[in-house]
Amino acid sequence: MAKVVVIGAGMMGTACSSHLIRTGHQVNLWGTELDGDIIDLLRQRGIHKTLHVSVPPGIKFFQADELEKAMDKRKIVIMAVASYAIGKIAKKVVPFLKEGVFIINVAKGIPPSPYLTLCDLIESLIPSSLSKKVRVIGMGGPARASELVRKISTEVIFGAKDERTAEYCSRITRSPKFKTSATSDVTGVELCAAMKNAYAIFIGMCHGLSEKLKISMDNTKAALMGQAILEMSRIIIPYGGKLETVMGQAGVGDLYVTIQGGRNGSFGKLLGQGMDVKEAMEKMKDQTVEGYIATRGMYRLAKDLEEKSIISIKDDLPLFNELYSVLYGGKSPAKAIEDYFNKV
């Protein structure tokens, strides 16, 4: 049994808390300033207002001004806030870290330059006195919060520079409904987690367009998924990631579930149905579309590789090139899909 604190009371943070309390751990769930109403309802009725489900008994809930109390004697810290807030929230957490703590990042995004992954960003904020005594781990794979909280079977992978650290996290979180594995490829795990969100938007656009036109486009969506995995590998491998990570749960597995019903796929679907980016964002204003943010980060990483003559964005990442044109250049999804297939 480990003493755990989950940082962020959104859907994923609450789902992780529910899983871990069922696995036999002591769990504190801390809410950010944005989670006040969520924590209030959890305290009063044990129900999460977005997941619409009762959480298992035993979780202790903490408001934003109770971070020190929530962090007390915790060995495992789960970072479950939106990727854009990781730096800000990690700075609040760091003063309460102790030697021997494990920080598991379940957020999925690409941080600002000069950092490659969110784990890199978190590590940069840890004081030098603790830098070798606090371990940072990434988690990837298909773990939709609405299913995780309801004990529906899945499999995830933990990545850490020291594979023994990842194996420890894998071992203590595993259950009959939550299969786990470990790797030293934390770069691959983290980048897959971010990039699949971006590509899920494009494939979601195809889904929305098929509904708008009232035609089946399953072949098209499958072809786009295959290309997405290929392009992810073309970015991830030059940065030190492994092909097997992209081809496993962190890449293929997570991309599939995100396409099927995640918020990024839903955002893409709205675009495909005819909304522009601003309208779709307004429609989903209560949800964080991580893939929209990740697309900018991916462009930075891809551009760095292009400047080193490792890849050509236009030739090697044609699907990503079209996605970027839609999200940041105003191109229509229908035209982007047409141009992609004409290019290939």
Automatic annotation (TrEMBL):
Domain of life of the native organism: Bacteria
Keywords: Lipid biosynthesis, Lipid metabolism, NAD, Oxidoreductase, Phospholipid biosynthesis, Phospholipid metabolism
One Pfam family named in its UniProt record: NAD_Gly3P_dh_N
Annotated residues for binding of NAD(+): 8-13, 145, 263
GO molecular function: glycerol-3-phosphate dehydrogenase (NADP+) activity; NAD binding
Glycerol-3-phosphate dehydrogenase NAD-dependent N-terminal domain segment(s): 3-165
Domain Glycerol-3-phosphate dehydrogenase NAD-dependent C-terminal, first and last residues per copy: 185-338
GO cellular component: cytosol
Annotated binding of substrate, by residue: 108, 263-264
Active site per database record: 196
Record field: catalytic activity: sn-glycerol 3-phosphate + NADP(+) = dihydroxyacetone phosphate + NADPH + H(+)
Annotated Gene3D superfamilies: N-(1-d-carboxylethyl)-l-norvaline Dehydrogenase, domain 2, NAD(P)-binding Rossmann-like Domain
EC number assigned by the record: 1.1.1.94
InterPro entries to which the protein is assigned, alphabetical: 6-PGluconate_DH-like_C_sf, 6PGD_dom2, G3P_DH_NAD-dep, G3P_DH_NAD-dep_C, G3P_DH_NAD-dep_N, NAD(P)-bd_dom_sf
Broad enzyme group: oxidoreductase
GO biological process: carbohydrate metabolic process; glycerol-3-phosphate catabolic process; phospholipid biosynthetic process
Record-stated family: Belongs to the NAD-dependent glycerol-3-phosphate dehydrogenase family.
UniProt xrefs under PANTHER family: GLYCEROL-3-PHOSPHATE DEHYDROGENASE, GLYCEROL-3-PHOSPHATE DEHYDROGENASE [NAD(+)] 2, CHLOROPLASTIC
Protein name: Glycerol-3-phosphate dehydrogenase
Organism: Aerophobetes bacterium
